[in-house]
Fold this sequence. Notes:
10 strands; SH3 type barrels; Glutaredoxin; 14 helices; 379 residues
Amino acid sequence: MNRLLLLKICLVAAFVGDLCLAIEHVSIERDGKSVHVDGKIVVEAADGGLLIEDAGGMLWAITPDEIVNRDSDAVPFKPADQEAMSEQLLREFPDGFRIHNTAHYLVCYNTSQAYAEWCGSLYERLFLAFNTYWKNRGFSLNEPDVPLVALVFDDQRSFAAYASPELGEATSKIIGYYSLRSNRVVMYDLTGSETAGGGRGSTAAHINQLLMRPGAERTVATVIHEATHQIAFNCGLQTRYADIPLWVSEGVAIYFETPDLRSSKGWRNIGGVNQVRLQEFGRYFRNRPADSLLTLISTDDRFRDPRQAGDAYAEAWSLNYFLIRKHLKEYLQYMKVLSEKRPLRYDDPEDRVAQFKEAFGDDLEQLNTEFIRYMRTVR
């Protein structure tokens, strides 16, 4: 059984928060190997299960049967800085990997330096734009506790070798992802992919040229989508392993994913109409069930069903787009409630609906009518 699920089932104990600032030292036996974990306790379950965050931001879900030894000391927990995390990354990855650091990111890569620098610049522009967007709407975010790590592999094969233990067969179908567990964005050099038309970029201008070719925009958007998740989970908009409805977390990431490769200093088209998702929602609308809004906000089931996932993502973007433009005050209040959710506390469908209604009103039918009417005007 999944370790997180076991911890969730047994979770009756406290969230430690400020009560436990010391470092916990836990020795565990996992998959036939001895592992030592040092970090702060995020959650301690009634049966002794633990969720621990280490100094680099990695989350460890530990079941009681894995624990061999456990103790703590009086040394205050301190997140790792850029130097410490850089050293750890270079120890973790083989020769050939290097580090490119920016104000908020550590880009660990074995591709060209030009591509690593291009990624760092792209992520920093997104970081600034994301924070500015919410600040300008009265929702102040915080600085990340740790440097944000982006792993950039030189090709799909090396990317898959790293990602397969975590993602399994899905690795072959994606070009990048954000890991809630490791807190890392993982991708490979897109200028060497068929989607980008082949031929690696040697300068930022050349890389932009390659990635603005027809067919490459969605590839870049996917990478930005995953980087948006990383920022949201590290700047206080959302909390890792908290019960954030997928229509919110995915809808927000889609809202920010439109790439702006022509600008070197800004991110001018945040919140622009996502034409791909708009067209998908238009097709879905032809046979959209009457309870579609309810099923979207009450559970994550539609996102996890391959037959319904595409429509769910399209409706998630559409609903976020509508609420931000027509019900911004209520939307921000709702996002504030979600930002305060703690890890591994899961709501049932009725609670999710109640939270939504508390923000947007009890009449879902009326809101749904307004939603559809508005989306028909979007071009």
